[in-house]
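Expect chain and fold; thus:
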Amino acid sequence: MILCIGVAADSTFLTGLQAVREAGLEHRAVDLPSLAMRGSVCIPLDDSASATIHQGTDVIRIGDVSAVWCRLLDVSTHAPDPRFATTAAGHYQAFLRLFEHLPIRVMNPPLREATGFTKVLHEVALATIAEWSVPRTCLTSNPDEARTFIADCPAGAVYKGASAAKTWAQQYQPGDDALLERLRRTPVLFQERIVGPDVRIHVVGGEVFGEVIRSSALDYRTVLGENDYRPIVPPDPVARGCVRLTETTGIPLLGVDFKIDAASDEWFFLEANSMPAFEGYDRRAGGAISRAMTRWLAGTS
C-alpha cells in the first residue's frame, strides 16, 4: 500500500495522488489539516514501523505501507485556533522524522538534503557531485565587496536571497547602488548573469525529463502566459549528473535548474529543488513525470 500524505489544497500533491489512483495502485490518502482537526498519530519511540495514523474509524498502520508519497507542509500557522495549531505543528515535526527513517521507499525523505538551507553551499556541493559549472557567485554582507563583484560582471549581475526561503531573482540595476548599504544587516547572493534560456530537469530515480524555457523576464516564474516551453533532451553529462544527484543525496525526485549560455551553449547549474512544484511541467509533458513517480513508488523502475 502507498501512503499519500500532504495538503488537499496543494496542486502538486494532488497531481501525484491522481497519478497513483490512475495507475491502479492500492493507496490511502491523508490530508494534514483534516488530520490535525479530526485525527491523531501514534508513533512508538522504540518501533517506528508500528506507528499508526487515525482518521476517525480509518486506521493506517505504517507497517502495512510499502512506499510514501509525501508533500509535508507546516499548516500550523493557518489553523483556526491554537489547539489545532499545536496539533498540526506536532504532526509536522513527527512526520519529518518518521519519513526520514522508515526502511521503505519515500518520495521524498523530507530532511535528507540539508544543503538547501543555504544556497551557496547547496550550489557548490551538488555541482561538485555532478561535475557541473556554476555561475560566478558572491555571497556578501559587505557593500564594497558587492560593488567590486558587480563591476566585474560584463553581462550584468543578478541577486537573490541566500537562504532556503523562496525569492525571485532580479537583475542588478545602477539605481540599486544605494540599496547596497542594507547588506550590512543581511547578506545577499550575487551571481554573474548568464544570458540565455532556462532549463528545468525533473529526475525521478533514473528517469530524466527536460524542458527549456524562453522568457522575456529574468525569472520566468514571475510571468504567466508569455513564456515559451519546449521539451529538451539534455546532453549526456547533464542527464548522468542529474541521476547521480538522486543516488548520492538519496532523494528520488528532484527539480534541477540550469541556464544555458546563448553565446557558448555551456550549461550552468543553479539549484536542485527537493520539493519541486512539478504539476505544470508534468501537464506539458503529458503526465510523463507523474507516471514515472508511480513506477518508482511501485518499485517497478
